[in-house]
Amino acid sequence: MDLQTPSVLAQLPRPLHAATGQTRIGEVNSLAEGKKRKRYELAVAVDGEAVNIYNVQTPKLVTSYAVSPQSTFSCRPCSVRRKLRTKSIVKRQTYAAVTKPEHQIKCFVEEISTGSSAPTISSSGASITDSKSPVNFVGIVPSNTVYESENGSFDILAVQNDGRIRRLSSDLTTQYWSIQHSEIAKTASTHVVQTCFLIDLEDAKKGLFKRRQDLASLALGDLPSTGTDEPSILLLVSHPKDTKTVSLESVHIQLFSVPAKTTTSPGGIEESQRLRHLQTIPLPVPAGLEKVNTNNSFQWNFHSGTAGLHFSFENGFVNFDLSQYSPAVSAQFVLADQFTSVMRISPQCVIGSSDSLIAIYDTQFKSVQRSIAPKDIALGPVSSTNGPTVFISYFAKLGLAVGMKANTLIAFDVTSLHSQPAPSLKRSRDGLLIDAIGRGIGSSASQWDMSKKHRSDDMAPLHLKNAEEAETWQKFTMAIDHASRSQKSNLFDMAVLSYFGASESSKDLPHSHISPESTLFLLSRIFTMKDAAVTDKVSASSSSQLRVALWPAKTCEWLIRIGHLSPDNVEIALRRACKPRILQSFPTGSFIQALIDSDTSLNHVNAVLEGPAVIASDELAFALKFFLGQARMHSGVLEETARLITDGEIATPTQELTRHLGGGVASLKHIFTGLNLSLQKIHAQPLPSVVKSLRSLLSRPELISMVHHLRLSLATGGHTSRFTENPPTPITLDQITPSLSLDVIVDLITAAVDAIGPSGWISALPTDNELENGSDAAVDSASREMELIADMKSEVSAALAGVEEATYLKGILREYLRFAHQVVDSSSTTADAVAKIEESAASAPSHLVRCEKLNGADLMVFARPEEGEEGVDGDASGKILPLSLKPPSLDVSRKKVLNSTGEVKTRTSREVGYLRRKAAGKYSFERLVV
């Protein structure tokens, strides 16, 4: 199933300096009574342009703050929105750190009062003079103050790369302290702070400190556990300096407690009162990840609810559970593909972006849940869609994963990931095994592309018993791939014949015991998914269409004969070939349309329709729609050409037909052959599904055309005329080839009438306005429709009378037919039975005079026997049926059925011998001539 096409939230301004400028995006929080809540907004800082606030739930620009053209932001901005109790004012304060033109932290304050139409915007800044290291984190430290002052009930915490941490007031007028903690100073010469996270103690108790009550008590210090300003938890992640790769053993994870309030003392404040060190956490090293590249795709994130610290890099995603005494790897998802961005959206799922695929992955079962190709994302002009997709934030309640592509802010709707909505506050479950079955990454492709190390689980589906057969399969796949790339069907056929058959003749290909996996591989090379122009930019459907890449005649004839060339098998083969991308369900008629496009003479589609493969009713209804349209078009052109010839306007009808129909179109013979094959094929489906498919795909005129064609087959087949009458002759024999049986005709006429429905027949009647206007065309059309129903009733009645006559005749001859059927079944082989019949026919004198054909029936006229021959008196002695109406058995059956229970048992040799001796001879009759 496809991931829906993302919606565009906003077009972001480009940095003033395109080569060096960057765009940094942070979160927006609301603050009330010391509690932070994530809002459905994003703060976007663009170098040299502005700091903008965008709403995600209702996409719009909320507000914007301009900055100087020389401004360069060093970290993500943060924004706080509050409602002041003392005044009816909504106050928004947005913070950002800049390195140019000077190192400082800027604050933008916006106040909106009740009754005021325009907001009041002001700005301030705090210069950083004691350190040249850039600021890489700005956050807020809330306090549980009942009375919220106008300046704010929170402080600002800024962290620099060298580990220096400073605390400022919300209006940036006061700096309370600036320290480099002793625990950070120990490694300041070798490490730099990579990223930071501020966590509320209440959230930390539910996740990070769930099993570590000692750390929770240490964070509180001398404060009581309840009814006071709880501190915030600062989590720092430090990396070694100036390295392109990092080892997880050298990464330092440090936890600090930040008090909610600052205290002043004449003798100074101790380090522990400013920043209290709680723990330094060593990270385990997952297998195979001793070194990780720290490029642009490397990023740390923390989820407070599950205490999961996870990092994403170019090859995947790893999550560490920090709530344990010893941190453990709770999720590891590593692929050979290179990702540009990976983001967590649930405990079991992540969304990742690469150059070829954007998908939701199940990290537990290594499967793809949803996917979309980056080229299927149409966001406007081509220039605005260049560049990788980078994920920014996930809003769980909205089910939106927000990302950025070039200068466009986009949102992916991932609510379809859960089959059912979550009841109340309980989250719906994901990451189930049933959702991962058939969606594994590389599972099916590995069966086709055998590696040098042949594993038993890869060889079993292909029925490969040893390494030699695996090598043969590897050579075969290479030959098929070469033939597919070079578009040489003869090489394709030769490779198939050399692997599956003994010679280069299609008759030597096997008819049974063929591994479906091998034929699926062939179908994945015969069919392909090709891009098509998308005109509907709003639609979320994929732009890929099913096409025939190559048509090797002998191979396709063999696949059709064994029933493996079917729409279901083609879809399975292409889904496996396109992994890890998950293809959208093929549109109705895509398989038939691909066959039609591959051969305009319709030989390919007719061959598939004639084969034993099962095709869905919707696909067959699409084929009926196509053939009916082609037949109507040809009929109209033929009538127009005949009129022009009669009027003397043209002298060369062939040129006129070529001009109207084109040179490469199919003939009427192929069109009607495909039409009749489609009718025979769709008759094998259940009648309710046939009616549903006809109603959904065929229009009313097409259904009427189908009824007329079935009526023609009913009449020309002799079903509506007596045996002594000649049935009507069709315009061309191609219309009734292959012939349709009576049950096919009757069932499909019934299905077509039901598909039109009562409303369809009623709508054929002329309206009052048409009658008042004297519209002859509408009246004639309505009269034809009414006559059609009357004609069908009379034709069906005539056919029913013929069926009743045939049933009556069959009742008279029932004993003879039953006896003949038993004789044929009791014959040892068909060849022996035919030989006996021919021997008896050759020995007896033949009285056959001639053979005639009347109304499709074969009549044999015999002469009367002469004197002395058997049957001269009208009786062939010894040729009547036996009294038991059972044919003589050649031997006693080895099986017997108990009359009491119906149990089938095997006779013993003693019982078989007894029955043979007891068996009586044939009944015989003698004539007494007096």
From TrEMBL:
The UniProt record lists the Utp8 beta-propeller domain at 9-372
Q: What protein name is recorded for this chain?
A: Utp8 beta-propeller domain-containing protein
Organism of derivation: Penicillium ucsense
